[in-house]
């Protein structure tokens, strides 16, 4: 095989070629920076999702706690076999703890949801900028939108 027919070698990592082409297009430094920012935002989103899951477990656990050791009485009320509820009863303490744990879980969940909403806005803005940068470098809009930001950023 002659040198003119030899397959072209690329300095681009695999996966940076726009879909449906047999050649490599340059990825501008600005596009790589945007891709790195998007990649970091996606990592942050995974962390927020973990926080959402943890916050969701708090109310579920708190809901189960008051009922452990309690038994329904014949009239549909709940008793802890320690007599009627008093200010220091096990049932009242458990319900108070459950109420605050549910409240904490709700606040944590609400906070994480708001953070994720703001993150989604940032992702949208950066995605639009990255698409524009790649299109300016010769990528089609579909190719730019389907580009793997982790590969563009060099994080994979």
Topology:
Elements: H1 29-64, E1 71-72, E2 78-79, H2 90-136, H3 141-145, H4 149-153
Antiparallel strand pairs: 1-2
Helix pairs in contact: 1-2
What does this structure look like?
- The chain has helices at 29-64, 90-136, 141-145, 149-153; strands spanning 71-72, 78-79.
- It has 156 residues and is mostly helical.
- It has one domain.
- It has a two-stranded antiparallel ribbon.
- It is rod-shaped, with a radius of gyration of 28 Å.
Structural class comes to mainly alpha
Main β sheet profile: 2 strands, antiparallel
Radius of gyration in whole Å, from Cα?
Answer: 28 Å
Give helix % range: 55-70%
Which features characterize this protein?
156 residues, mainly alpha, two-stranded antiparallel ribbon
What's this model, at a glance?
The protein has helices at residues 29-64, 90-136, 141-145, 149-153; strands at residues 71-72, 78-79. The protein is mainly α.
